[in-house]
Amino acid sequence: MTLLSITSIDVHYGDFQAIYSLDLHVDEGETLAVIGANGAGKSTLLKTIAGLLRPTSGDIVFDGLNISATPPYRRVPLGIALTPEGRKIFPSLTVEENLKVGAHVKRPGPWTLAAIYDAFPLVADRRHRLGVNLSGGEQQATAIARALMSNPRLLLLDEVSLGLAPVVVEQIYDTLPAITGQGTTVLIVEQDVNLAMKFADRVQCLLEGKSVLEGVPADLTRDQIATAYFGI
Amino acid sequence: MQWLNAVIQGILLGGLYALLAAGLSLMFGVMRIVNLAHGVLAIVAAYIGFVFVNNLGVPWYLAIIIVIPIMAVVGYALQWGLFNRALTKGGLAPLLVAFGLAVVLTQLLQEIFTADNRRIDTGTLATDSIQVTDTIYLGLLPVMTFVVAVLVIAGLQLFLNHTPLGRAMRAASDDPDTVKLMGIDNRQVYALSTALALATVGLAGLFIGMKTQFSPTYGDLVLIFAFEAVIIGGLGSLWGTLAGGMVLGIAQAVGAQINPSYGLLIGNLVFLAILAFRPQGLFPKAVTT
Amino acid sequence: MSIATGENAPTGVKVKRATRSSWAGLVVLVPILVFLAMAPYVLDRGLQQQLVTLFALIVMATMWNLLAGYGGMVSVGQQAYIGIGAYGLIYLAETLGINPFISVPIAIVIAGLISIPISFLAFRLVGGYFAIGTWVIAEVVKQITMQIDALGAGSGLSLTVLNELSPGRRIAYVYWLGLIAVVLAVGVTYFIMRSRLGLGFTAIRDDATAASSLGVRVTRSRRIVFVVSAVGCALAGAVIAMNTLRITPESIYSVNLAAFMIFMVIIGGLGTIEGPIVGAIVFFALQQWLSELGTWYLVIIGVLAIVITLFLPRGIWGLISGNGKIRLFPVGYRVVSPWTARRGLGEKEPEGA
């Protein structure tokens, strides 16, 4: 069953067009990785799905509901949560307070404070620390945990690996099965193609705001991906 | 003994100033709006209280219960009607809108109530006092005001730290875009913050109206006192503001003891001295972000 | 802010300041000035005195705009300098016996000197708190004035030495002083904005952090403008004192004067030279027109200012000029690229900034 279906959206920043007539869908329970070079429009895509940006044309349908014009704060109760680029942890709040803000809409589901602390020992350890005092990896783990607190049906993860040490990235990706194991659908944006191929059920590659390749990792060759990624 | 008395009166006065300042700090903390209409809004509350008590014969304690929700609704409406719009314009717009509002409200009060001095009638409350020693009497109303102010500040602090809405306000202050990703409409959080701020300023305005003679332009002084308490105490800490209010109150009371016309001047000079020599305030917030 | 001018400009690209409309502006402005200068020979005294009021308003609006529109500093305390200028003039002329027209430049220099230490205090605050801080400082100046017996304490001062002149002469001289004040205020603002300082302000307005990292001395630039604005406001104060011949601390230090300045600039258009002048004229006209309504006029003007802030942020001048296409006072630079110039479009292109 299709959870999210995007049909031919255009997205602009003022005069600049970032996404051109893009089609994309995510099935319930699957993990889709969107890959692409810098400036391919990946983060723009996630912001548009979360509602921070509005498409200038085209439709976004979530669970049968057209949400193209729904403001971001109304999409969270529907079950969409974004871990934003740059993590955006609230600096003057503690880790635990950040998590509680994440649970603001009180969507019922498996993720409670206790469940989060169970699944993310790193976050549990730092629960009383202020956001401003967290390391990059701690911020990223907190950001994912905070998004999970709204018990989303669709979790959007933006550039999880960006700026983190490989060992930390591995730790964070290791929690992914625990998330998908709860039935959560995940749309992940990743620059690291190997990570994306390893963890995703399906990948879609963007190039300069357009979709250029889509398929199951096992079916795609490295050459196909390199061509789609770099446009050569 | 007169001097000790002046200091004690000043401390009690400080509670009122801190109560006035709490709403100013709250709006600045959450939205970075410096509400220049803060003072006149306190006086608006005083006039509403005046109408209920002096004209309609409602007892003063009932007037408090009536006026606080009225001011909260006014705050909610002002935020949606003016400030949320001004915030989207950015730049100087929120400040200029607040200033325009201050002038308009002051003039409207002049038109409706004239420039005459008024006072909310509280019967014997204004003159009742508690005798502490042979020479020191504490006015019942100032003591009551001080106690209420401390309770309100403590309540605000607990509210901000331990309730979902309080957390949402602090989160919106940190990052208004990211709270939207938590399912929170930051504009609604702003409106509730302003409602809360005006509820506290309404309470403070009623105490002013019961304590002293007020007229439409008294709001100018109220804004200045609230601002001075905030800066003396150090930005961002409600308890610091209480201390700041007390320092200001003591300076004014002691100044007035030297010469009745020096009260305000000495209060202002103490403020300027602190601005010059300790601009971070007496009790700056330990953690800054 | 690297703008190629003159010899080092890339071939074919011209940088121009004046537009066709600004030359047209000169053609309009000069006769208006000549006419205004002749007014004492033509207009009756009452009208001249009213025009002096308008001149003082224009000076005040121009000075407030210099602070807020260019320097980004919203002051609610410029009445401090209006008062210092007015009190200074009367004290120098009455008590020290200096010719009042010589007292004016002395008084405004004193106001400028006083504003320097004040700037160090006020600059510790930013944004809205700067606004209230300047207001407190103005209150302190008023309260100190009221403690000084030589300045008439709470009851104020009168200017009597001008009565040695015949009323016709007195009013004409004050009128010319007011006109000179307008020309000076607008002219100084114009030259500041065309100078390096002005360019620096454009940079600060766009991005203060970047500007300071590129060597624009933000605080120093702001201080210069703060002092110039104080001097200009003192000049307005001196003109007001000469026009009304009597001042009281409550009126000359009134925060309503700050409200007038702010409303004039918002209504006319923040951040342009023309805006405050237009705003002052509109404000003056509304004041006259609504005078029977008592204080309602300030309610109406205040509401107008709020509406304009929210819905017409460039003010009336922004509306008239089509958002900057018409300029009587060209303070920016306009890059005329060779191809648009060749097509003859250079003059009509709106400024990119």
Description:
The complex is a heterotrimer of chains A (232), B (289) and C (353). Chain A has 10 helices and 10 strands. Chain A is α/β, with parallel strands linked by helices and 232 residues long. Chain A has one domain (2-230): 3-Layer(aba) Sandwich (Rossmann fold). In chain A, the strands form 2 sheets. A 6-stranded mixed sheet of chain A has the order 6-7-8-3-9-10, with helices on both faces. Chain A has a 4-stranded antiparallel sheet with strand order 2-1-4-5, with helices on one face. In chain A, a hairpin with a 2-residue loop joins strand 9 (202-207) and strand 10. The longest helix of chain A has 13 residues, at 136-148. The N and C termini of chain A lie far apart (35 Å). Chain B is mainly alpha-helical. Chain B has helices at 2-31, 38-55, 60-89, 93-113, 140-162, 164-174, 176-180, 186-211, 218-233, 238-258, 263-277, and strands at 129-131, 137-139. A two-stranded antiparallel ribbon of chain B has the order 1-2. In chain B, strand 1 (129-131) and strand 2 form a beta hairpin. By secondary structure, chain C is an all-alpha fold. Chain C has one domain (18-332): ABC transporter involved in vitamin B12 uptake, BtuC. Helices cover 69% and strands 3% of the residues of chain C. Chain C has helices at residues 20-42, 45-70, 79-95, 100-122, 127-147, 167-194, 196-206, 208-213, 218-244, 249-252, 255-268, 274-289, 296-311, 315-320, 338-342, and strands spanning 14-16, 157-158, 246-247, 334-336. The longest helix of chain C has 28 residues, at 167-194. Residues 1-10 and 337-353 of chain C have low confidence and may be disordered. Chains B and C meet through helix 3, helix 4, helix 9 and helix 11 of B and helix 5, helix 11 and helix 13 of C.
Helix/strand layout:
The complex is a heterotrimer of chains A (232), B (289) and C (353).
Chain A: E1 2-13, E2 16-27, E3 31-35, H1 42-50, E4 57-62, E5 65-66, H2 72-78, E6 80-83, H3 95-102, H4 113-119, H5 121-125, H6 136-148, E7 154-158, H7 166-174, H8 176-180, E8 185-190, H9 193-199, E9 202-207, E10 210-215, H10 222-230
Parallel strand pairs in A: 3-8, 3-9, 6-7, 7-8
Antiparallel strand pairs in A: 1-2, 1-4, 4-5, 9-10
Helix pairs in contact in A: 3-6
Chain B: H1 2-31, H2 38-55, H3 60-89, H4 93-113, E1 129-131, E2 137-139, H5 140-162, H6 164-174, H7 176-180, H8 186-211, H9 218-233, H10 238-258, H11 263-277
Antiparallel strand pairs in B: 1-2
Chain C: E1 14-16, H1 20-42, H2 45-70, H3 79-95, H4 100-122, H5 127-147, E2 157-158, H6 167-194, H7 196-206, H8 208-213, H9 218-244, E3 246-247, H10 249-252, H11 255-268, H12 274-289, H13 296-311, H14 315-320, E4 334-336, H15 338-342
Antiparallel strand pairs in C: 1-4, 2-3
Helix pairs in contact in C: 2-6, 2-9, 2-11, 2-12, 3-4, 3-5, 3-9, 4-9, 6-7, 6-9, 11-12, 11-13
